[in-house]
Amino acid sequence: MAGVDEVGRGALFGPVVAAAVLVPIEAINQLQALGVKDSKQLSPQHRSQLAQALPDYVHSYGISFADVPTINRVNIRQASLLAMERAVQKLPVMPAWVLVDGRDTLPHIAMAQMAVTGGDRKSLLISAASILAKVWRDTLITRLAERFPGYDLASNKGYGTAKHRQGLRQYGATPLHRPLFCRKIIENPD
Predict the structure, then answer these.
(1) Burial level of 13, CB count in 10 A (0-12/13-18/19+)?
(2) Separation between Cα atoms, residue 120 and residue 101, nearest integer Å
(3) What confidence score (pLDDT) does residue 189 get?
(4) pTM value?
(5) Distances (CA, A) of 34 to 21, 31, 189
(6) 26 is in an annotated binding site
(7) 8 Å CB contact between 141 and 134
(8) 42: CB partners within 8 A, 6+ apart
(9) Is the dihedral of CA 170, 139, 32, 28 positive or negative?
(10) Deepest in the core among 20, 37, 105, 107, taking most CB within 10 A?
């Protein structure tokens, strides 16, 4: 069985990233013992530790993303689904079942699926995927922060904090900002 989740859906900057994990049934209790839970409920340090440990407990995993041009072209919801589909397709063995975080199943994946609203809080498989996706995306955004100073990306990871919005108003959007997400911030400085 596999779980898949995405991160970065609400960010102003950077791609939406997804991870899929294929976990043997006998390893599920081990994930719980490790402290796997929704990535948003973990400190950055604990997330990183779990992301390093998870490959030893899962059969395999895949990480993928949808970039800003794709988000602009198809919308964030469809880009999130695309990133999750790509992550599942990167698994070397196709699972019998996929638990998908959210309200949608993956339209281009022909296998048994279940959409689980709030799945990152309800399923250890989805939680494990959320951890891998979050750490991968946070690492990417931290690296990109050096190329784009002035937006406080290393701290906000691309989300719309006050400092990030201030940077957008002061410097404008970079090519990795999501124009549809940033337009109102830039046009309406209040």
Answers:
(1) buried
(2) 6
(3) 66
(4) 0.95
(5) 16, 5, 45
(6) no
(7) no
(8) 35, 50, 131
(9) positive
(10) 20
Q: pLDDT tens digit string along 26-85? A: 899 999 999 999 898 999 999 999 999 999 999 999 999 999 999 999 999 999 999 999
The DSSP 8-state label assigned to residue 60 in this structure reads: E
Q: Is 6 annotated as a binding residue?
A: yes
First to last CA, the chain: 48
The token duo for 175 is 């090519």
| Residues 71 and 79: beta-carbon distance below 8 Å | yes
- 8 A C-beta contact, residue 143 and residue 176: no
Domains (range + CATH), the chain: 2-143 (3.30.420.10), 145-185 (no CATH)
Residue 65 pairs in a beta bridge with 17
Q: Residue 5: how many CA atoms within 13 Å on its side-chain side?
A: 31
Residue 152, marked binder: no
